[in-house]
Design goal:
The chain is built from 15 helices and 10 strands. It is of the alpha/beta class. The chain folds into 2 domains: 54 residues, Arc Repressor Mutant, subunit A; 272 residues, 3-Layer(aba) Sandwich (Rossmann fold). Strands 1, 2, 3, 4, 5, 6, 7, 8, 9 and 10 form a 10-stranded mixed β-sheet that branches. β3, α6 and β4 form a beta-alpha-beta unit. The two termini are 34 Å apart.
Length: 354
């Protein structure tokens, strides 16, 4: 969200009225971006214009009142459920977002993109509250982290480090890189992106890329990360970046080994154990040992089939905090704690779950 500009500039100078624009084109571009959630790159291709012109048209659409931005929040934080999660799993932080409409109907779990957007917004609020000047913030390339970077409006002076390579073809304009740059900009800190694919064809290629000066500079900062936010993926198509990057035989191989979750490129079974894979030699990502050394590691996931995945990563002991939705939180509380003993939700929150 950009702050609205005053009608008067500094020192009493009048701000010039917005320049004339093609309002029809600006409206079309704004519709694609705000309502259809298309990327600036895709919009640029459709209209045969540069992505920089797309950005200018979006700004102009706001300036000319073609787009009016209202802040509405069809979600709220469920503090009792969050407290219950911290107590049950020994966490420092647990943010639970109750994704409901005003009439009480639940947001469709099929709309995973919207779920990720609200969870990312909640994660941004958490990070803005716990981050301190001098922290080194680590971000992976998950959808929720991208939403976090868009929602973050304030941050102490922090360096921001990208923890995984990118999944798209356009390395310079990938969402993971953009998220790191945006987040660093929120606090005026330095950004350390990774302009490299997440998964390489073989270990030799990955080793060569890791040795490149710009990439090595970012990798060398992994050990300095003090707070990190990472997405947790269920082992299924569209829900796991690792799963989507593999061939079908590779997917089934790891599924047969008990794979049910991934985080920062690492695959976990239902007991929270990391499944050894040959992927480690081929991927550009923070290692499990480096993740374990991060003082504050926040996992984000919700909606769909995320419960089993979050439960698995919680059992690993890597996380100090989670951000999830209320339905998933209730399922986690029902069973799957440290002792795996089923319990009623009433044991944790005052009101019974519905």
């Amino acid at each position: 969200m950009r702050p609205q500009r005053d009608a008067m500039g500094g020192h009493g100078e009048t701000v010039a009225p917005p320049a004339t624009i093609d309002k029809l084109l600006a409206a079309s571009v704004a519709r694609r971006f705000y309502l259809e959630h298309q990327s600036k790159v895709d919009i640029a291709k459709e209209f045969n214009i540069s992505r920089f012109k797309v950005a200018r048209l979006l700004d102009a659409a706001v300036a000319h009142d073609i787009v009016r931005i209202d802040i509405t929040v069809p979600a709220e934080i469920d503090a009792p459920l969050g407290q219950a999660l911290t107590e049950r799993f020994g966490l420092r932080h647990a943010i639970v977002v109750n994704l409901t409409r005003s009439e009480g109907s639940a947001v469709s779990s099929a709309d995973q993109r919207q779920v990720s957007r609200w969870l990312g917004t909640a994660a941004a609020q958490l990070i803005s509250e716990i981050a301190e000047e001098g922290d080194v913030l680590g971000l992976d390339g998950s959808r929720s982290v991208d939403a976090l970077s868009e929602a973050l409006t304030r941050l102490p002076l922090c360096d921001v480090v990208q923890l995984t390579g990118v999944h798209g073809q356009d390395l310079a304009n990938d969402a993971a890189v953009a998220a790191v740059l945006r987040t660093a900009g929120a606090g005026g800190g330095r950004a350390f992106p990774l302009y490299t694919p997440f998964l390489l064809p073989n270990a030799a290629t990955a080793a060569i890329l890791r040795s490149q000066p710009a990439i090595a500079e970012t990798l060398n900062r992994f050990g300095r990360v003090t707070k990190a936010v990472v997405g947790i993926g269920a082992w299924d198509a569209t829900l796991s970046a690792v799963y989507d990057a593999l061939t079908e035989p590779e997917r089934e191989k790891y599924r047969a080994s008990g794979a049910c979750a991934d985080m920062a490129g690492h695959v976990f079974d239902g007991a929270g154990q990391v499944i050894p894979t040959e992927l480690n030699a081929r991927m550009i990502s923070m290692s499990v040992a480096e993740l374990r050394a991060v003082p504050e590691l926040i996992g984000v996931a919700g909606g769909g089939r995320s419960t089993e995945a979050i439960r698995a990563v919680l059992k690993s002991g890597l996380l100090t905090g989670v951000v999830t939705d209320a339905t998933t939180a209730r399922r986690l509380l029902w069973s799957g704690g440290p002792d795996d003993a089923p319990r009623t939700i009433d044991a944790y929150v005052a009101e019974p779950a519905t």
